[in-house]
Write a structure and sequence with these properties.
Protein name (chains A, B): PadR family transcriptional regulator
InterPro entries (chains A, B): Tscrpt_reg_PadR_C, Tscrpt_reg_PadR_N, WH-like_DNA-bd_sf, WH_DNA-bd_sf
CATH superfamily of the largest domain in chain A: Winged helix-like DNA-binding domain superfamily/Winged helix DNA-binding domain
Structural class of chain A: mainly alpha
Oligomer: homodimer
Domain Transcription regulator PadR N-terminal (chains A, B): 11-84
Shape of chain A: elongated
Order of helices and strands of chain A: HHHEEHHHH
Organism (chains A, B): Virgibacillus byunsanensis
Domain Transcription regulator PadR C-terminal (chains A, B): 98-180
Number of helices of chain A: 7
Chain lengths: 181, 181
DNA sequence: CTTTACATGTAAGACGTTACATGATTAA
DNA sequence: TTAATCATGTAACGTCTTACATGTAAAG
């Protein structure tokens, strides 16, 4: 198995969703992929440059009226092929997601129960906020973007986020009850 | 906020669970923390060394009959204080967990539906396997380790894994149905 | 005239894995 | 004698974030 740089393919994919500059890719990630992928500018710009070097994309300097100049990237046919073949390959093993709350909980016999309950409460708040963010994005997609060809798949990824977050929220509530005894 | 090295605290915590050598810490992680934390030897040994340098732990060379020598690490009172204060601090923002399947799904309009369904099927298999691993560990803890003071908290972290994995499994099944239409 | 949004980029460093290197002891 | 388990460690490399650096253009 050759080592795959997933971030590279994330950007390759984003170039097919109407994003063509580093800046707009970043906006898309922060707005719509945020619950399962995150990329900083420190990765985006070097990766775009690299895609061009590898012949997977082309650049074009464009002038805009009313806005600064920007660089527009477009997939080459090699780039499209690379994206396709990545999409076809089955994903490798599910990585372990680090969870700091569970790590603390694992050692919580050294702690008073009410402190542990507060920790969970804090986590619960963050999960709830996240859940509402998902609902907002869902509404946005349903109302404004149903014309976009990608939107059914975007809704599916959101559904995943909603379901797992809801399960985590319920765990918080039940665990707090358990610890109160 | 000072930057916290979570891995350092993970090891600090593990030194309170009956693990005192790099090797046994690694075993514990692979066996019981695997669903929410992972550490390689490349991190463990340098971190243990660092803990001693910072005065949070002490080392002792020990000889064993029938086994190679090993180094035993024990928390100092400073180490216990450091662990306590880390446990008391509320966790920072929930990090985005990268999910390669969702990333591919996000771009899946470029793919035939049956390939996407296969991807999800592969993911489903991995989730199911993971779920059964959780059940095994749960059984092990319930049967053999109920005397251990930490076990109630270990069961709680397992419960988290089971619930979120189950939600993901159900999402797989429902999404496959959806894509078959 | 100042803030916000648009836009691109780099350097340092943190974090983490993998592969490598070594060696003791036991059981088959 | 060979494989498995126990045991410790490092070097190279990949990935990613943060902070820094720079600049345009619109809107208030």
């Amino acid at each position: 198995m050759t080592k795959e740089n997933h971030t590279k393919y994330a950007i390759l994919g984003l170039l097919t969703t109407g994003c063509h500059s580093g800046y707009s890719i970043k906006q898309m990630i922060d707005g719509s992929l945020n619950h399962f992928w995150k990329i900083s500018y420190g990765q985006i710009y070097p990766t775009l440059k690299q895609l061009v070097e590898e012949g997977l994309a082309t650049v074009k300097d464009t002038t805009q009226t009313g806005k600064p100049n920007k660089k527009e990237y477009y997939l080459t046919s090699d780039g499209k092929t690379a994206l396709q073949s990545w999409l076809n390959n089955p994903i490798e093993a599910i990585p372990t997601e680090k969870n700091e709350l569970l790590l603390k909980l694992f050692f919580s016999r050294h702690q008073h129960a009410d402190i542990t309950i507060n920790q969970i409460d804090h986590y619960l708040n963050q999960l709830t906020e996240r859940y509402h963010t998902y609902l907002s994005i869902e509404q946005l997609i349903t109302e404004n973007l149903l014309d976009q060809a990608d939107s059914p798949f975007w809704l599916i990824t959101l559904d995943y986020g909603k379901r797992t977050t809801k399960a985590a929220i319920e765990w918080c509530e039940d665990t707090q009850e358990k610890l109160k005894e």
